[in-house]
Design a protein that fits this description.
Blueprint: E1 19-21, E2 25-30, H1 32-35, H2 39-43, H3 52-61, E3 67-75, E4 80-92, H4 99-111, E5 117-123, H5 139-156, E6 161-168, H6 172-180, E7 184-187, E8 191-195, H7 201-208, H8 211-225, E9 230-235, H9 242-255, H10 265-274, E10 279-286, E11 289-299, E12 302-310, H11 320-334, E13 339-342, H12 347-352, E14 356-358, E15 360-366, H13 369-378
Helix pairs in contact: 3-10, 5-6
């Protein structure tokens, strides 16, 4: 009889595509059902901020516009050393560009509606930053194997464009081989980070912020304090509150100029239920009613603030953005969290709050070699960071490129 501990009784990964031979072994596509329960699937992502359970939740709860797959990478001995999540979608290359660019090409799109719209294979996840799907000791091997496998994989799925979505700056040395093989690297909208060697928020303000900005914040907090008190609670499972807080997320989503993934209420519930030690939901209430919440994850001594929801009927009057940020930094200081990360956008206040940019890169290649020779020269003009003048004012803005 098989027992749980007997690895030989675990399921094996079954290909759902052709098998391609690479410089490092072979590669093939598998679906989630084939991966679940296998040893490589449960161990390869174990040290990463988002493990295999995260990818399962994303595929099963965020289904709109995304076609999910997983590229399995085997070495020459048949050992699975990499599993790279990817998804397919039709991508508008002008998404998020300014009104001037949209107007310039608007008339052309009346004649050619699909102009600069391509079926795209995106490496990574629709939710958050990308990662290489390998154990730490296999990261470089995985990058080489992935480089060999992506082109036949894209051709198999009829994709014209390959995009490595939002890969952290720390992987540039591993992914330099992509640039040498005709991929263009351009900056994505960066995250920001703040080191927290402080006892509390007041010490942070005194140490890091200018006198004028400290006064500005204190005026905001004073006006907020004149209203009914705002309280904060922290939970790992949002399920009992999801009907109350999910509409707050939708308010922020609908106001955003740049939209990609749209979270579902089921996603929010499952990430807390599946990873309660990593997941923190912060909920702010006034007179018992939720007015803001934040979805955060804890990893390696850092808090990642990933999504925010607000009630815009009161958000501006109560300065909720600054109130929530103050409370999160205060919580980090009190719980020994040494670094705070925030995802893209809202760069102006973060500049004054002395955050540093955390670059995220896009690696892009057209599957047609002739077209790609032109495309990779034009691509920097579509760099999403070009539209935000505030980014250039950060002390480490040069790191974006």
């Amino acid at each position: 009889m098989c027992v749980v501990e007997n690895i030989s009784c675990r399921p094996v990964i079954k290909p759902s595509s052709d098998v391609w031979f690479t410089n490092c072994g072979r590669a093939y596509v598998a679906d989630l059902a084939s991966l679940k329960g296998t040893v490589p699937w449960e161990t390869i992502f174990a040290t990463q901020r988002k493990d295999h359970r995260f990818f399962e939740i994303v595929e099963e709860t965020i289904t709109e516009d995304f076609d999910y797959h997983y590229l399995v990478l085997e070495d020459l001995h048949g050992k699975v050393r990499g599993i790279q999540p990817f998804f397919l979608r039709t991508q508008d290359l002008l998404g998020g560009k300014g009104p001037r660019v949209q107007k310039l090409l608007g008339k052309s799109r009346m004649i050619l509606p699909s102009l600069l719209t391509m079926r795209t294979l995106m490496v990574g996840s629709p939710v958050g930053e990308g990662c290489l799907g390998a154990a730490p000791e296999d990261i470089d091997w995985c990058a080489e194997a992935l480089l060999s496998a992506l082109m036949p994989c894209a051709q198999y799925f009829g994709a014209s464009l390959i995009v490595m979505k939002e890969f952290p700056v720390g992987l540039r040395s591993n992914l330099a081989r992509f640039v040498r093989q005709s991929y263009a690297r351009i900056p994505s909208m960066p995250y920001v980070a703040l080191d927290l060697p402080f006892r509390n928020f007041d010490e942070y303000m005194q140490t890091m912020l200018s006198t004028a900005y400290r006064k500005n914040l204190r005026r905001k907090f004073k006006r907020t304090a004149q209203a009914a008190p705002i309280t904060m609670e922290v939970v790992s499972d949002i399920t009992p509150y999801v009907e109350e807080i999910y509409p707050l997320y939708l308010q922020v989503y609908e106001r955003s100029a740049l939209r990609f993934e749209k979270l579902t209420a089921e996603y929010l519930c499952r990430i807390g239920q599946t990873s309660p030690a990593k997941t923190k939901f912060f909920i702010w209430r006034q007179s018992g009613r939720a007015v803001a919440f934040s979805v955060c994850s804890l990893h390696d001594g850092a808090l990642w603030d990933e999504y925010l929801g607000m009630d815009y009927r009161v958000a501006l009057d109560l300065h909720l953005y600054f109130t929530t940020l103050r409370d999160l930094i205060e919580w980090c200081c009190a719980h020994g969290v040494k670094r705070y990360y925030s995802t893209a956008l809202q760069y102006d206040p973060k500049l004054h709050l002395r955050f540093a940019l955390v670059p995220m890169d896009l690696y892009v290649r057209h599957t047609n070699a002739v077209f790609n020779s032109i495309f990779r020269r034009v691509l920097p003009l579509l760099d999403p960071t070009r539209q935000d003048a505030t980014l250039k004012k950060f002390h480490n803005a040069s790191e974006l490129w």
